[in-house]
Amino acid sequence: MAAGGQLKVLHVVDTLGMGGAETWLMEVLRLWSRTGAASMDFLATSGERGVFDDEARELGARIHYLRYSRSNMPRFTRRFREILRRGNYAAIHDHQDYASGWHFLLAGGALPKIRVTHVHNPAYQIRAHYGTTPLRRLTARIGKQLIARYATQITGTSRQVLHEYGFDDTVFAHIPMRALHCGIDTARFAVDRDLSRAAICGELGCPVDSLIVLFAGRIDRSPDPADPQAHKNSAFAVSVAIELALRERRAQVMFAGSQSPAVPILQRRIADAGLGDRIRFLGMRRDMNLLMAASDALLFPSRGEGLGMVAVEAQAAGLPVLASSVVPRECVVVPELVRFRNVAAGPEQWATDLLELAPQRPNRVAANRLVAESPFSIGHSSDALLSLYGRD
Question: Which of 47, 76, 304, 347 could cysteine-pair with 243, CB 3.0–4.6 Å?
Answer without folding.
Answer: 347
